[in-house]
Write a structure and sequence with these properties.
This protein is an alpha/beta fold. The chain has helices spanning 8-15, 19-24, 35-47, 51-62, 74-89; strands at 3-6, 30-34, 67-70. Strands 1-2-3 form a three-stranded parallel beta sheet. Helix 3 (35-47) packs antiparallel against helix 4.
Length: 90
């Protein structure tokens, strides 16, 4: 069984109908998305002008039988916080 985990950039390219991304996402049996990725997407939706439309599209994507949301643990959250802090400093 082929499984892939996508990030925010891959999802955005998929929504923009990037041919290579659309094709690549047709192959795996499972597509994993992290809660961190979902947080980034919802943040972008909330500061954008099409929040309702974007949320509905994301919900349809998440409803696919092939898509699974992974749950992050406290170690992942701490690591993410450190990366985010470092990026903000730069």
């Amino acid at each position: 069984m082929k499984t892939v985990m996508i990030d925010t950039k891959v999802y955005s390219a998929f929504k923009k109908n990037n041919d290579s991304i659309v094709a690549a996402l047709q192959r795996p049996e499972r597509i994993l998305v992290s809660t961190t990725m979902l947080g980034e997407l919802y943040c972008g939706f909330k500061i954008g002008t099409q929040e309702r439309k974007n949320v509905k599209e994301l919900e349809r994507f998440l409803d696919s039988r092939r898509v699974e949301v992974t749950i992050s643990d406290d170690t992942t959250a701490e690591f993410y916080g450190s990366i985010f802090r470092d990026l903000k400093r730069n």
